[in-house]
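Deliverable D5.2: sample structural annotation.
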Amino acid sequence: MKKILVPTDFSSNANKALDFAVQIAKQAEAEIVLVHACDLLSTTFKDHLAIKNEHNEALLDKANEHLAFLKKSIEDTEKVTVTIKIYNGNITDSILQASEENSADFIVIGTRGETELTERIFGSTTSGILGKTKVPLMVVTPLTEWEISVKPLTETIPGESGKFAPDAILFATNHFEENKELLNPIVDVAKLFSSTIHVAVFVDTDFAEAYDYVYNIGELHRYIEFLQKTYPGVSFKGELLEGEDFESTIEKYNDKNGVDIIAMITYPKTFWDRLLKKSVTKEMAFYSKIPVMAITAK
């Protein structure tokens, strides 16, 4: 992990996501690419040219000022290299373009801003990126309940309140993926912080039959053995979770077991899937109290 892309609208939630990205960058010795998208005016009327230019210059000056401040603060206090980029146009397209142009290995983004307008824009932006980017995406919501530690990570106590020490990552799956390209981003983050990966398979008690339990328990044991063999030195723990609702079951498990990050792999949906079924990953990403890592399977 060499480059972490962080889009910002300068809101408090965007800053929270940036703090999270900085802590990962410190451990990975990675560079932060801080991106802001400006919706610059365009006009074909000469009479409006001066107004357009004045408006655009003011937007760019303000954005550059904010970005320069964040860059200096991070580099001075955290010793993490920051590159700043400004793009013109649609926010989602700008983020996807920035990710490709800067060869990003990871994207960390906040879901919502401080106002109703930025909430609507940044929320829909995150939703638009989920499933489209080839790069693993870490989503940080305003509900996230961690604080960044001012102490070196080596001095933190695992599970200590208020310290950035993600001891546990919950990997929720029912596909038992063996594709290392999909699994590596989860394992890479776990290695950075010596985290235990809890591999969770959910069974819906409203519809499950005896066969479902037998099958999933057997597959889970086999899968844990595969992961341990494939990634020696990484701690894995298998969990069969049962309940009437996926999101609430996961949340209860996270609270009980001190999970700090949720990881999920998303799959392309057909037209009817998109029409009739909600995206579980999007639901988790928008309402989780902890960051959600989304990895897109192509």
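Annotation notes: The chain has two domains: 3-140, 153-296. Residues 49-78 form the longest helix (30 residues).
The annotation will be released with the project's public dataset once the embargo ends.
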